[in-house]
Amino acid sequence: MNIIIAGGGKVGEVLCSELSSEGNDIILMEKNSKRLNALISKYDITGIVGNGASYDLQMEANVPKCDIFIAVTSQDEINIMSATIAKKLGAKYTIARVRNPEYTKHLDFVRESLGITMMITPELESAKDIMKVIKYPTALSVESFANNRVNIVELKIKANSPLRDMSLKNFRTRYGNILVAIIQRGDEVLIPSGDDFLREGDHIFVVSSLKEVNKFYKLIGDNRAKMKSVLIVGGGRITYYLINMLKEYKMDIKVIENDPEKARELSDVFPGIMVIHGDGTDQEFLEEERLEAYDVFISLTGVDEENIITSLYASQKNVKKIVTKVNRTLLLKIFGTMGLQTVVTPKRVIANSILQFVRSLTNTSVSNVEALFRLADNQVEALQFKVKETSRVINKPLEILPIKNHLLIAYIIRGKKLIVPGGQDVIKPNDHIIVITKEKKYDDIDDILK
């Protein structure tokens, strides 16, 4: 597909990397010539120096002939204007990143009025992800499929866990409809078989309904009480969206913000919330604010290193749930993940949404990509397909389908039925299928076949 991206920042770079690696023709529009040249030399893309909202520049980039135009500059107004001009010029689909809460209050109205195909707010989506792990305290991450009917939940095997050293054959016998879809063991990631064992320190990704997962928590003795209090360091946009969600959950909320003007603004918008002006990365200050008394600690400053270090300190203080914002995920390999629990990466959130959209357009005759998530440090994809009558996977027992290696058909959703498939099960037209794979670039259910 011919895709034009306006903006070569953190999100723009991720999109250039991911979309070019999947065989798309990418043109990047970026005002900073040094930044543009660096990305052109790094990825298989071409580029034009200039403002993505310029009519002349869009004509030079041949926007009227492009399949998708994506505006992800640092300015909402430029993104909205760029996407609107691109649509008027004839781009088939347009996507704009919008971050300002003033715009997101009326996102659908703005999108429909201007004819923009998709408007994405990474901070809002990140806040939703954080809220999921607060609602389900044992989980390190939660991804939802089929309108929240099926979920992939990340858990860690602890030293005292009854799951430690258990074979997956015994796991399935004991826990029924809970399916272990992924095992992450250090840098190694497995799509496991029944012969594999669970080890201390493993991160496992289980697939089931949340009702079944909650039963599973009780069976393994890890059914934690509801989180009642939260301490947030950093008063940016994610915090703004998150406070609105936490208020509905009736939690005791405290926010620490180092910028006095930001702290004052946040206090004015949320008069019932305790907002403290101070340095939330100062360990003595955190002790004064009684960090150890809170159920949840969330570090959302604009500096990755500070978020990691304060989260590690919260771990030393035995805070039950810790959430850390990290954009440069390479830092996790440098610092290690000891003490970190849930890591949120806003640029990855928006990239996954756009990748899902792009793949959903690629092959609609056999199946549609309805959901896409990257798991286990971006090494595994979980996809949901809607299967059509023309697919080669239908009406054959799964045990005879020539399915590729390192791949798992995790769930079949058939109307109101949720099916954990066995060898005798078959896929039927209109089924929704959840596939877990280490191989990327799948845009069609038939791609699972050898």
TrEMBL record:
Signal peptide from the UniProt entry: none
Organism domain of life: Bacteria
UniProt key word NADP: no
Domain RCK C-terminal: 140-222, 370-450
RCK N-terminal domain mapped to chain residues: 1-120, 227-345
InterPro entries xref list: K_uptake_TrkA, NAD(P)-bd_dom_sf, RCK_C, RCK_C_sf, RCK_N, Trk_Ktr_HKT_K-transport
Pfam family for this entry, one: TrkA_N
Assigned keywords, A-Z: Ion transport, NAD, Potassium, Potassium transport, Transport
Gene3D superfamilies xref list: NAD(P)-binding Rossmann-like Domain, Regulator of K+ conductance, C-terminal domain
Protein name as it appears in the record: Trk system potassium uptake protein TrkA
Organism: Desemzia incerta
